[in-house]
Design a protein that fits this description.
The protein has 194 residues and is mainly α. The chain contains nine helices and two strands.
Length: 194
């Protein structure tokens, strides 16, 4: 799917599910000239390290989270029942912190003929060094209110692969099951789809 189709899909899911006050303003920002959300990579050299990688990753996480939460065991045994709005909001916006985070720079590398040439690569240019998950929570909160569980889910979506205190992550997962579910969806999208 090309970037325009992915963008259209993202906007449709966003508008169909995220209705709270300020959601329209946040989407307006994401679509504006001040934001590169729809064209940004998801990382410098790992998953989604291409134009539109962040958009693709956000959609992948959405579908993975929907699938995880639809499992009979998840719903009936773990009692994970979340609104379509919470699911869409957490998945589609969990990595909003990567908006305007990467730049394209150039370095010298040898081509197939053994000649040196300038090649582009993504580099980090963090103008708001506020962490990862917490930065996404901060950015979203500037437009709309999050529930406590949504905020913790987004904050701890990196799970145990992040740099946070492992005891805090475990405690957040115990207290806020959506945090665990979003972490699972993020890992599944990252390691199996991208």
């Amino acid at each position: 799917m090309d970037i325009n189709e992915l963008k259209k899909n993202y906007i449709e899911i966003y508008n169909a599910n995220i209705k709270r006050e300020g959601a329209d303003k946040l989407l307006e920002y994401l679509m504006s000239e001040q934001s590169d959300f729809f064209t940004a990579p998801a990382s410098t050299k790992f998953h989604g390290s291409h134009e539109g990688g962040l958009l693709e990753h956000s959609l992948n996480v959405y579908y993975c989270l929907k699938d995880y939460l639809a499992r009979e065991r998840t719903r009936n045994v773990y009692k994970m029942n979340y609104s379509e709005e919470s699911i869409a909001l957490c998945a589609l916006l969990h990595d909003i912190c990567k908006t305007n985070f990467y730049t394209v720079e150039y370095r010298n590398a040898k081509n197939a003929a053994g000649e040196w040439e300038k090649v582009p690569y993504y580099a980090i240019n963090d103008t708001l060094p506020y962490g990862h998950g917490e930065k996404s929570v901060y950015m979203i909160s500037g437009y709309m209110r999050l529930t406590r569980e949504e905020a913790f889910a987004i904050r701890y979506h990196m799970g145990f692969s992040g740099i946070e205190d492992k005891n805090s992550i475990g405690r957040a997962f115990e207290m806020f099951p959506l945090a665990f579910a979003l972490s699972v969806a993020d890992m599944e999208a990252t390691y199996y789809l991208e």
